[in-house]
Amino acid sequence: MSEELLLQHCSPTLAALKAGNMFSCPYGSMPMLEQTVQTWNARLNSKGVEILILSKSSNTALIYVYRPALLAEELQKQESKDLLTTYGYPVDTPQASLSYLSDKLLQQGAFPHEIGLFLGYPSTDVRLFIENKGCNGKCDGCWKVYANELEAKQRFAQFKKCTALYIKKYKEGKPLDSLAVRKVSL
Predict the structure, then answer these.
(1) How far apart are CA 11 and CA 160, in angstroms?
(2) Cα dihedral angle (39, 48, 160, 124), rounded to 10 degrees?
(3) Are strands 20-26 and 60-66 parallel, antiparallel or unpaired?
(4) Across the chain, where does the E strand assignment appear?
(5) Which of 26, 25, 27, 3 is nearest to 14 (CA)?
(6) pLDDT tens-place string over residues 38-86
(7) Do 136 and 146 meet the contact criterion of CB atoms below 8 Å apart?
(8) What pLDDT is stored for residue 1 in this prediction?
(9) Within 13 Å and on the Cβ side, how many CA atoms surround 155?
(10) Is 105:112 a contact under the CB 8 Å cutoff?
(11) Checking phi first, is residue 109 left (phi over 0); if not, alpha (psi -120 to 50) or beta?
(12) What is the CA radius of gyration of the chain?
């Protein structure tokens, strides 16, 4: 699992533009994958970024890169809490919700649609995606948009630009941990 793969899929989270990203990663050795995740966490936790193996199959792992502070903000919004509660999630802490999500992924083998909340997608779009069974959206990008199309398109463009810039800077020699920004609370 390369740093470039992490940047390709998770730059908006490293830049503190969204709560989380995830990607599937093939692996040959689970101990090596766990060591890589541990090394990345040692380098990125001080920047407010955490990485975990959310689920795994015999040769592919689902890697979740997130900012716990931003995730907590997202999951404490009333619409997010209501939606998660509907699907049986504990909402007392983000860690409890993540643990439930991980268990659900292992049991179902498919992505539960509420996973969008963990990726920082607008809760209204997540709810409407579920209610409309993925149909009737206004546009598609990182997620299917139902509510605020203009704002979503601006965010999609911002995420794309961020990813291109991060990959460019990385290829120019900037290390991964210096690309991750420290989110400062005001």
Answers:
(1) 9
(2) 130
(3) antiparallel
(4) 20-26, 50-56, 60-66, 139-140, 144-145
(5) 3
(6) 999 999 999 999 999 998 888 899 999 999 999 999 999 999 999 999 9
(7) yes
(8) 67
(9) 20
(10) yes
(11) left
(12) 16
For residues 101 and 87, what is the distance between their CA atoms, to the nearest angstrom?
Answer: 10
C-beta of residue 25 within 8 angstroms of C-beta of residue 63: yes
| Tokens representing residue 149 in the block | 């199309």
C-alpha span between 40 and 9 (Å, rounded) = 15
Rounded to whole angstroms, the Cα distance separating 162 from 184 reads 19
- Start-to-end C-alpha separation, the chain: 35
Residue matched to tokens 């920082």: 120
Query: What's the token pair of residue 166?
Result: 């991060």
Residues with Cβ within 8 Å of 163's Cβ and at least 6 positions away in sequence, in order, are: 7, 8, 11, 12
Tokens of 59: 């040769």
Cβ proximity of 116 and 19 under 8 Å: no
